[in-house]
Each structure stands twice: as structure tokens, then as C-alpha cells.
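Reopening: Protein kinase domain-containing protein still failing for me.
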Amino acid sequence: MGSCNEFYSAKEFHLDPKFRVDPRHLFVGPKIGEGAHGKVYEGKYKNQSVAIKIVHRGETPEEIIDTEARFAREVAMMSRVKHKNLVKFIGVCREPVMVIVTELLAGGTLRKYLLQLRPRCLDMRVAVGFALDIARAMECLHSHGIIHRDLKPENLILTADHKTVKLADFGLAREESLTEMMTAETGTYRWMAPELYSTVTLRQGEKKHYNHKVDAYSYAIVLWELLHNKKPFGNMSNIQAAYAAAFNNVRPSVENLPEDLALILTSCWTEDPNARPDFDQIIHMLLRYLSCHMPPEPMIPSHVFTSENAVLPPESPGTSSLMAVQDDLEETPKGMMETKSRGLFFCFRQCF
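Support: Ran it again with your exact input. Result attached.
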């Protein structure tokens, strides 16, 4: 799709007044993330803890036009979808800087959580539970005709209790009806579907047609990580992983995995996009796996104790022990406690 401003220009940008954020009530705290087009901060809005994404407009007129169009597209999509596994959209302001405000999730990214857990793996029930959360978020997006295009652990955020995963960052999302001339090379190479690559080179800017099935491929790579807690494609660079997947049909190993889960992976990352399942099918397969191999454990009545130090089963088997490990590993980010909230205008001057 040539330029995204063909579909969302600044003049066409209309937003429900309830989503308009008053920058006078927006206060910015420590930085918690950074991407190609902006930085994300912890902050406050009207005494509510929030995540604040400040978008960098760019330097040249062309960059500014494209950034404003991308911003309008992201806001338009976030404001119209709502699901318990999607980060909640709170509002936006465009001046003095472009800002997107969402709920703040204290659990950090799935990437950070997995790295802190290594070399240990997630409990299987926890891993499948997270996989279900992600699949349900993706099913919601696809039901609204939206392709995320950048599904990866960095864009998956955990709640404070580490029991729920929510999908974030619509910066690269697109409406599927607009993909006929969509730019390829979109997303992060290690997780990108092979059909996004040129058959000659990974030259940025090539136009290709693809559909929502690119998200199924990315989902399979994320699921493989959840099950193994290892980097997919081993020690290959991102570019090497892209070439291996696109031109040699290389995929991570599914050895030693339960047959049902291996089938989900291989069907989601198959080379033919049309053969990949939709997310409602993926959800059904995951639920069937849970019901067949991990039936609910019987609950012990609260008044029954076998010893003074008896431990009752956690709400989600395996989760409590993982949370204990996580608590031991987590450290307060440097400067988090002493950093005071600052006004939006101050932060903008400091950061850009």
C-alpha cells in the first residue's frame, strides 16, 4: 500500500470526544519501552495509572505526513476494538505532541518474563493459558478485519499477577480490506510470515498481497517460544532466520512436543497461507488439548488440612510457583522509585 496516508489523512481524522485526552492532566514518569516510531512511559492521567506512547513526528515533511497518517490509523483501530486480552485504549491527544494513552499493565512484556525465567520453561498449563489469551485477542482483531502484522513477545503484556496476557501496539496493524498493495517487510523478521519476503531479496518497500494468515504464522513462532522458552531459529540473526524460513522452509523443531500442540504449530506455520487455520479454530484446538490432557484438578475443601504447612492448589496449576520465581527475579527498574512524574510538555522537551 503505497503510503498509509492514502487512507487516513490528518484532515480525515475524527475521534469520539470521549477519547480525547486533556494534556493538562497528563503526567509522564519513567520510560518503560521504545520502538521505531516512539517511546512508551509510565504515567498518570487524572489520577489513573496509564501507559503513555509519545510518537515522534519525524523531521522531513514526508516523514511527518506518514507519521500522522500512521498515528490516525492506529488510533482509529484501537478506538473501535475492545476485548479482555487487548490492552485497553483510554484516549489520545495530538498537540503539543501525538500521544496514545492506554491502561498500564504492571507485569511487563512477555519477552522480559520469559528471559527472567530461563533456562526454566513455563508450566505447560500456564503456557497453553497464555496461548489462549493471545489467540482470543487475535480472533477479536481478525473479526474486525484488522491484521496486527507484528505479533511477537515484545508486544504482549502481562497483568500484575502474571496470569493474563494482553496484546498491545497497533502501530503496524492494517485493515485487511486495504492489503491489496500493502508494503511487504512489515514486522520483525524472526516472526514474519514467509510470504512477506521477496523471492529475490529482502529489499524493503516491495509491494505484495497477503491476508490475515500472516498473523497465524507469527502466532506459531510465539507459541513455540511459550512451550520451549528459547529463541526461535537458535542463534541465527533475524535476517538469517527470515531467509531460512522463506527460502528453505526451515521451521523450529516440534520434537518432544505433545502431538496436538505440534499439529497446531505445523498447521499455523505451513508455507501455504490458505492452509493455515483461523484463530477460532486455533482456540478450539487449544481448548480440546486442555480438556483431553489437562482436566481441571479437584479442589481440596478449605477446611481440610493434612498438616500445619499444607498448601492449597493455586487457582491456575503451576502459576503460583512461577509467580514466586518471578518475584525473586524481578528488580525495581533503576530510578523507578525516585523518578517523579513530570508534565507532558517537560517530557517532550527532554525526549525529542
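The mean pLDDT is 78. If you still see a failure, please send the error message rather than a screenshot.
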